[in-house]
Amino acid sequence: MTENTNAIIVEKVKQGDKEAYRHLVMRYQQKVFQTCIGFLQNEADAEDLTQEIFIKAYQKIESFRFQSAFSTWLYRISVNTCVNFLRKQKVKRLLFMDSGNQSKELKGVSEPADYSIEREEQRRMLRTALKELTTMQRKVFVLSQYHDLSNKETAEVLEISEKAVESLLFRARMKLQKAVKERMTND
Amino acid sequence: MNCVEFEIRLAKLKSGENPGDEFIKHRNQCAKCTKLANEVEGLFQLIEVDASKTVSPFLSTRIMAALDKKAMEVHISIQKAWQIAAVSLALIAGFNLALFMDYRQSPTDADSVLSEYFFAGNAGMEIENNWLKLSTDED
């Protein structure tokens, strides 16, 4: 599906053709879901948030003026929604000392039956390291590693320069390596 | 290449990219850096596994159903808003009508004076008449 096809579908949706939106959902749900997984590290939450993102995009589609590709616009909504979700979750935990989500988070993405303790330890470390990243570093890291976007595409989504993406990604990876080193020292 | 340079190169390394001879040489010589590189590789493999998770095949149906539900909610809330507006308007109109009717039925100032005089006079007259009547009877 090219951007031209997207534009035709978006026009149809703007005119009230809700069924046309299904094509966009089918086309982009996997990518949006990957972004959510990268931010939330939890499959169930990621699916719920994917749904929320598509509803939000549908409600805001009138404001889409074809100044960028539809996918860029959608990924921007995805990233911002994920960041807001994490902020709300953090506030909720602070206010209510809610441990429910934490335990859910530890469970993480469903694993094959033979996953090792080592793997679980790795996952925990990854989560801890991701939490250490700044919001921008995390955005860049998720779009680049989970979403598999190029630096140019990531720059377009986040409305920053490619150089900034490179720098943010480098710092994010350095922090990740630092977490690995700390774990190695503790072992 | 020393350990710091190795770490920097490792952080800049893209997936599938050739790291270069010096990097490989240092990796083979330094046990600490070998372990670090292996651990980091393990993490990126984990990320790949997570990123390859496929979305539920029912998600699109769920999304479309949620959109329909939202549209229905909006429709209902618009309907409710109209109902509330209609009831409010009816109440305001009724209140105003009552005020208007009351105004129409209320006597003018001249009427009030006349009726007060009439009733006051009548009352007096009645007492006077009765008294006169009584006194006539006595006679």
UniProtKB/TrEMBL annotation, chain A:
Keyword field contains Chaperone: no
Q: Which GO terms describe its molecular function?
A: DNA binding; sigma factor activity
Q: Give the UniProt keywords, A-Z.
A: Sigma factor, Transcription, Transcription regulation
Transmembrane feature ranges: none
What positions does the domain RNA polymerase sigma-70 region occupy? 24-90
Q: Which SUPFAM superfamilies match?
A: Sigma2 domain of RNA polymerase sigma factors, Sigma3 and sigma4 domains of RNA polymerase sigma factors
Q: Which domain of life is it from?
A: Bacteria
Which residue numbers delimit the RNA polymerase sigma factor 70 region 4 type domain?
124-176
Q: Which GO BP annotation is one of this protein's?
A: DNA-templated transcription initiation
Q: Which Pfam families match?
A: Sigma70_r2 (PF04542), Sigma70_r4_2 (PF08281)
- Family assignment from sequence similarity: Belongs to the sigma-70 factor family. ECF subfamily.
Entry protein name = RNA polymerase sigma-70 factor (ECF subfamily)
Species assigned in the record: Natronoflexus pectinivorans
Automatic annotation (TrEMBL), chain B:
Q: Mind listing the UniProt keywords for this protein, alphabetically?
A: Membrane, Transmembrane, Transmembrane helix
Q: Where does the chain cross the membrane?
A: 81-100
Kindly provide the name given to this protein in its UniProt entry: Uncharacterized protein
Q: Which organism is it from?
A: Natronoflexus pectinivorans
Instruction: Provide the organism lineage as a comma list.
Output: Bacteria, Pseudomonadati, Bacteroidota, Bacteroidia, Marinilabiliales
